[in-house]
TrEMBL record:
Keyword tRNA-binding (UniProt): no
Lineage: Bacteria, Pseudomonadati, Pseudomonadota, Alphaproteobacteria, Rhodobacterales
Presence of the UniProt keyword Oxidoreductase in the record: yes
GO molecular function: FAD binding; oxidoreductase activity
Domain FAD-binding PCMH-type: 1-177
Database matches in SMART domains: CO_deh_flav_C (SM01092)
The entry's keywords: FAD, Flavoprotein, Oxidoreductase
Alphabetized Pfam families for the sequence: CO_deh_flav_C, FAD_binding_5
Protein name per UniProt: Probable carbon monoxide dehydrogenase medium chain
Amino acid sequence: MKASAGGYARAVDVPHALELMAGSEGAGRFLAGGQSLIAAMNMRLSEGDMLIDISKIPGLSGVAEDGERLRIGALTRHAEIGRDPLLRQHAPLLSDAVRFIAHAAIRNRGTIGGALAHADPAAEFPACILALGATLHAHGPDGDRDIPAEAFFEDVFTTALAEDEILTAISVPKAEPGERHVIEEMARRSGDYALTGLCLVRRSAGHRLSVFSAGPVPILAKGAMTALDAGDADAAVEALRAEIEPSSDTQATASYRRHLAGVLLRRAIARIEGETA
Ligand SMILES: Cc1cc2nc3c(=O)[nH]c(=O)nc-3n(C[C@H](O)[C@H](O)[C@H](O)COP(=O)(O)OP(=O)(O)OC[C@H]3O[C@@H](n4cnc5c(N)ncnc54)[C@H](O)[C@@H]3O)c2cc1C
């Protein structure tokens, strides 16, 4: 099936993109890598959209140091995230997540901003930024706005971004010496969305554990984090299984996903302990 688009315009900068959105009478959709939006249009899940192409806006791509944080432009592509040396050194969780995302062709086009704005509950980057404690930077008609990752994901495919706001960048804290990052997931085939997955960060201040494909939004598993801080892996697994809300579908039952989350957590703990030993 072919997509049904209501028009196309390429934005030259962020103010131009907002101007095009304001003039679109509600039909405007920002187009970044197109790997989710165009797929949805091809399936006619979305029709008559006025595509506002933001993919060529200068200054919204790449990774830069910003004091104790890294600033990642929203248009940075998945493949660039995977090979960026600053991310490899200071936020390896994001680098490691890339190999789990789809296939090379999609990773060459898809952008981190698109993945976050799309907010698929099975996607990897949303859970990564939760575990890292990232801040999302948006720009809209009222100016700039910073949104903590914990307040960003509201429901399936729904975020705190307004329709006329552009996600411009994401900033993450640089890892402190000795900090450990692990991502674990299970998918039926390489490149498929995860049946369930999790991200574990161990800092001197404590553990941060996020879970994806285990409910309508990725969550921080706070009960399990407390048990991990106390050094009790069994209690962490039990708490994790209790605090997620997986659903059953054609891929897996809720109870299988709940079981899997515990298995993945034990693997993540073993990897972190193995790396430290
Ligand atoms: C076959 C297939 C398999 C996939 N498997 C995975 C997977 O395993 N894991 C995974 O995480 N993803 C997967 N994806 C999705 C992929 O990662 C997409 O690239 C990503 O979800 C969307 O990024 P994009 O840049 O292509 O966004 P687009 O498709 O261009 O846009 C997606 C949505 O975000 C909005 N948007 C985009 N950028 C911005 C911005 N800067 N500000 C505000 N709104 C914005 C758009 O308006 C649209 O609503 C898969 C996709 C396909 C087609």
